[in-house]
Amino acid sequence: RTGLDAVPIIARPYLDMQTGAQASMLVAHPDYLRGSIDVSAASDFQTAELLARGNFFERPCDRIDWLAGYRYARLNESLRVQQFSEWTAQQGLIIPGTTKALFDLFRSTSEFHGAELGVVYEERIGQWSLEGLAKLALGSVRSRVIIDGSTTTTVPDAGSATFTGGLLAQETNIGTYRRSEFAVMPELALTVGYDLTSRLRATFGYSFLYLSKVARAVDQVDLEASQLPPEAPTGAHRPAFQFTDSDFWVQGLRVGLD
User: pLDDT tens, position by position, for the chain (258 residues)?
Assistant: First the structure.
């Protein structure tokens, strides 16, 4: 979050399709416009699986098990840009005290459902153990993207008017969009264990997980505009929506007790 005290001039860039040149929407200016802008982004990832496990090979100090089952994953993301401006001096027909508040919202959800196969290798040397895990899930990702935005202008002694669309979310791309794509979801993990007692083992591990064909919120933003609200859509009708695929991966460290 920032404001006039921190940055004298605040502007949001976009590509003007009418001129083909870089342009910007002014949010704050030290001479005649007081304003602020707030950008927030959120990402939430969840996954679960239901597996059967059986022994494929075993010796006194090592073994190999197979895994088979079902895998589920869900990625929720959002990007919201909110701005507020108030004119402090006359600018053409705009009188002092006029305010403009607008927001752009991009929200995406990707759900994965698939069948999963895997293998686990475990080796024990004295009090130490080493476990390697490899899994692969094949299935589909169902993606949903929601785009919304609005602009509210308030003129002193004249009331307020609200228009559909902000800057990068306008009538040309606002809506709800859905699709389904084939996707893969592999996972790799390595865990080291140490027997603290005959019944208690401490573990430390690393895991890596990848998911293809997800729709991420920030990737659905079109930075080109052929008009600004409340202007009616014209010309190239931008910003426009087009599903943009992306890869998503997470990695992490684990500490536990068995």
Answer: 444 455 589 999 999 998 889 999 999 999 899 999 999 999 999 999 999 999 999 998 999 999 999 999 999 999 999 999 999 999 888 999 999 999 999 999 999 999 999 999 999 999 999 999 999 999 999 999 999 999 999 999 889 999 999 999 999 999 999 999 999 999 999 999 999 999 999 999 999 999 999 999 999 999 999 999 888 888 889 999 999 999 999 999 999 999
Distance, in Å, from the CA atom of 118 to the CA atom of 54, rounded to the nearest integer, reads 11
H-only helix segments in 62-184: none
CA distance 152 to 174: 17
The reported pTM is 0.87
Coil, strand or helix at 49: strand
- Identify whether the C-beta of residue 151 lies closer than 8 Å to the C-beta of residue 99: no
Rounded to 5°, the CA angle 223-224-228 comes to: 105
Residue 215: helix, strand or coil by DSSP? coil
CB atoms inside a 10 Å sphere around CB 167 = 23
What residues are paired with 100 via a beta bridge? Answer: 85, 153
* Contact assessment for residue 3 and residue 30, using Cβ atoms and an 8 Å cutoff: no
